[in-house]
């Protein structure tokens, strides 16, 4: 409890320091209601049953459960979330029962008027309850009699008590509420950083020693084998393979993948050690050599349950995305065409459509709560909102003239808003060099008006990828300068950021439990970053074999995480894409081949199924075993 009070004082101090007096007054007012009641179980039970229910404060009752869902559950913990929802529905039933016992039928009718839409999602359980205000003696009705009994109420209170006791002793309590006040925390962190730097220095020395050994091996081979730095890989030792060789390149020998104890993980560790900006003069050459000397093992081919191929496009695929339910798919091509389609013949095809945008489509984002709205971003700054039910464009927006290219769009999973990442244009050979300064705008999806522009500083590098956390309160954004930025959406402010790559970041994703962030750099490195210890790398892979720097000349690569957070799918400059096993003992898998490079990927929201779009104009849905 001391930690909680300390956190409250920190917030007060910050608000006073910034002069946010009105916010401070609202903060003090909210504290007076003590939602959460300092996580004291008996006080929360009294708040629910003696205040909110007894005085018919429905909005506060619903707000309390919303607070619990946001603070103590996540999409990765379906069991806890399901238990909380069942408990919420039981408490709402008692709200109705208490109103009927008190003769307040008006409050019952008001209850169903305000909460009807939410309750109808639980149609099987709640449909009979809509008639209860009009039943003369519901306490004698066999269907409702049990809810009027003292035994049921006692069971409900006991279940609520046990649930609260469990979560308040759980590690799921937000980190802010477990702030340590020990004075030696900073000193301890400095010691940890010092030890880490020493270990990195040892790794650097070891790498240089290995390079000397490799150089000696080359001299012994009279320059044969790996000397040509213009090659992308080797099929056997000394046999050159061209960049577009596809299948033969993928079936390369592992004799070049493990030399003198090197592997892909060690290369990532050494790369991360150079984040202070102090590079050895030969670091760029060393990185080029690693592409040949430190290639990954050949992954086994994925075991397929079924695969469906969609051939409705006439040019290279730029984006492909599953809808919120996973029943519908939106795919786009560089000729400006968007197609909405289904892969399952048993799924209604009523939403199927073709949309012509008049410019290359650079971003697609489905509304997170339904399959009704699809947002489409184009390379000329256009943003279209497509209503899949009405089969028409309901809004046609444009970014400002200063930022004429839309790089990404993301809908909030909770609020009716979306964020657009747009950029200015400039000349360059790669897609990152052709993007200039960044603009992040938050739009309202009912009025279709801009709400705010998120602050990025003066002349910020372009934002390439966006991702919301599960409750829409935090937005992660990756940039062309290698940074990852984190925004508090309720405040509209940047709360933190760190240098994630020594090259532009093309894709960013929250981890399954939202305690980490995945990022893909244009150097082909994938990192999983801890959100508890900023800057700490939890997991890494080098996928430059598939995402070689040359392929970034034409497009940005992207990553996608499956619903369990265990498999990471990456786009590929080859005909197959890698599926990495995250934090597992297995190295990974390979997708079945397209006939050209794989330009876009996505996972089904609930099933072991992924989608791949290709430069061969096809889109494939693959269910894996």
UniProtKB/TrEMBL annotation:
WD repeats lie at residues 310-351, 498-531, 591-625. This is Anaphase-promoting complex subunit 4 WD40 domain-containing protein. Keywords: Coiled coil, WD repeat. Residues 246-266 are annotated as: Disordered. Residues 179-220 form a coiled coil. Residues 52-169 form the ARMC9 CTLH-like domain. Residues 458-508 form the Anaphase-promoting complex subunit 4-like WD40 domain. SMART domains: WD40. InterPro entries: Apc4-like_WD40_dom, ARMC9_CTLH-like_dom, WD40/YVTN_repeat-like_dom_sf, WD40_repeat_dom_sf, WD40_rpt. Pfam families: ANAPC4_WD40, CTLH_Armc9, WD40.
